[in-house]
Amino acid sequence: MSVLDSLNSTAFEAFDQHVIWSDMIGNLAGLAALALGWRRSVLTWPVQFLSGAILIAAYSSANLGGGVGKQLVVIVVALWGWQQWRGGRGGSTDGAITVRFATWRERALLLAGAAAGTLLVGGLFTAYPDLSWNPWPDAYIFVGTLVAMVAQARGLVEFWFAWLLVDLVGVPLNFHSGLPFSGLVYLVYLVLVLWGLRDWWRRSRTAVPPVSAPLQGASA
Predict the structure, then answer these.
(1) For every residue of 157-175, which 3-state class applies, written as one string?
(2) Alpha carbons 136 and 86: distance in angstroms, whole number
(3) Does any domain span residue 53?
(4) pLDDT tens-digit profile of 15-60?
(5) Of 186, 153, 151, which is closest to residue 84 (Cα–Cα)?
(6) How far is Cα 151 from Cα 140, in angstroms, rounded to an integer?
(7) Could you read off the pLDDT of 112-163 as tens digits, one per residue?
(8) 195 lies in which domain range?
(9) What is the pTM of this model?
(10) What confidence score (pLDDT) does residue 116 get?
């Protein structure tokens, strides 16, 4: 049996659903990464990288092209976010990232990117149905995850709002796609998102506001 076959084998059954190892391990790592993000620890990024690598196997088994693509993006953005946080962008003296609310320009760019990206990816999945059996929710989660991680890498409080919107679609989609452990973990994500949002919101009030900078620009 190959490594991929082992990862996609059944770990246990719950509520008449088969829970596979890749779904369970990848999502537990993702849950740990989100908790580390709430703590503003740079370790959130290597753990997120590991989660993405394992979940590729889970989404492949469920024929969710958007899920696979999302995890590939997670891996790339995790490397970028790791470099951003380790490079001291917005860093604080206690070794954790300094957080802030986005400027209105940054919010507009994030929203425009989310809308355009969802239309583009959803259209692609619709044109090539073999990539995903549920194109528009799949595209929404794919793009929403990318937007959330970009906002997280820049230390923006809005990152939690993006994750909240992803969770609202991700929970029913994962249950319906035969990935019940993913669905349950998304429910836990929801609690962590609300908790993390409160913490980052509070910390943003005590942080020194940075000079306004474009979303895609040179380092300060």
Answers:
(1) CHHHHHHHHHHHHHHHHHH
(2) 35
(3) yes
(4) 566 777 888 888 889 889 988 888 888 899 999 999 999 988 888 8
(5) 153
(6) 16
(7) 999 999 999 899 989 988 777 778 888 888 889 889 989 988 889 998 899 8
(8) 3-206
(9) 0.69
(10) 96
Judged by DSSP in three states, 13 sits in strand
Structure tokens at 75: 């891996």
Q: Which residues contact 137 (CB under 8 A, 6 or more apart)?
A: 169, 173
Question: Could you tell me if 152 and 90 are in contact, meaning their C-beta atoms sit under 8 angstroms apart?
Answer: no
Per residue in 33-51, is it b (16+ CB within 10 Å) or e — as a string? bbbbbbebbbebbebbbbb
Task: Please give the structure tokens belonging to residue 65.
Answer: 């092209």
Predicted pLDDT at 220: 31
E strands in the chain? 10-14, 17-20
Query: Buried b vs exposed e over 146-175: b needs ≥16 C-beta within 10 Å?
Result: bbbbbbbbbbbbbbbbbbbbbbebbbebbb
DSSP code at position 2: -
Domain-located, residue 181: yes
> Contact 160/167 with Cβ under 8 angstroms?
no
Tokens at 50, concatenated? 């590991």
- Asked if 185 contacts 27 with a C-beta cutoff of 8 angstroms, the reply is yes
Tell me: pLDDT of 182 over 90. no
3-state secondary structure of 89: coil
Q: Does a structural domain hold residue 218?
A: no
For the chain, what's the residue count?
220
User: Is position 220 within any domain?
Assistant: no
